[in-house]
């Protein structure tokens, strides 16, 4: 174990499978965020949503996003965070006795980045939640394997419904609905998005965040939701399976063949119930969804891992790896770009209320492709994404080498 200066991991130390999975998860995050946030009562009025609901293409875009993407992407992304946590902390401990302090500093910086994003750039930020859940994961790192798996699974399946039900019983969600979601508040917020200044945007969404996120109890709900996924990710990494993915490929393929169709079938039922195509009691529908999304996310991950080690198709999941290596930069960029699409201040296009679900779906894919191409070419010259470089520099207290060394001619 070395003391003193500790450098971040090099490119050769990265786990390519995790980068590919992270990039794939980001695609789902982009789609879910763009399609649903443009449709929610924040950036559209009821008259817009009613008109979109009469267009089969828009209905299909919403249904497909709910069925194939919603909650699956953030589940996969959260599990990957937990896996990355265990890998990074283990590597830090192998290099220095100050590993715990370094990782806590890393989380503190992420909390700051999340707060900036939440209040100044993208009011639907998840980094703030991830940082808080990361501190809780750090506190629980000493759990036994069994306890970590049980706690993670329980939180994955039950955290959101329990917290939301409790909040409703206390009357907190009623207050949230009155302050944030009533028609007058929606109209005011929509006018701010279209006609307001940047200062108006910040002020309006700071209020929404304070009342609809912090005081409502939704923040606690999302922290527990994320923590469950983090614990499962850390549990997976502790098993040592990451080092044996190629060896376990046949078993991974068999798992994908079972859980992906089953998970998507359950999620289709959930989508159908939510769109009045089927009927189920609310509790049964919620149970179907919570099990289905976990199985679908596991199915996506195992299918991608199986492809990653395919001799003929391995190139396909590897296309996602550069985007995943620059996940922080790309996540913040996707929010800033969508803000400029929805809002009217500065160079904003003021398309809130007029950009339809099918258009936001195509926009999400287009933005992802553009950022993926950017990431690919950026990483040819630099070892880290721009924000990843800043994050590492602040974490370790010194700037690592940024540019790649030019290849030596032979």
TrEMBL record:
Transmembrane stretches, start-end: 24-43, 73-90, 102-122, 128-158, 213-232, 252-269, 290-308, 328-349, 361-379
Domain DUF418: 237-397
Keyword Membrane included in the entry's annotation: yes
Record's signal peptide: none
Pfam families per record: DUF418 (PF04235)
Keyword vocabulary terms for this entry: Membrane, Transmembrane, Transmembrane helix
Protein name, per record: DUF418 domain-containing protein
Organism, as annotated: Sphingomicrobium clamense
Taxonomic classification: Bacteria, Pseudomonadati, Pseudomonadota, Alphaproteobacteria, Sphingomonadales
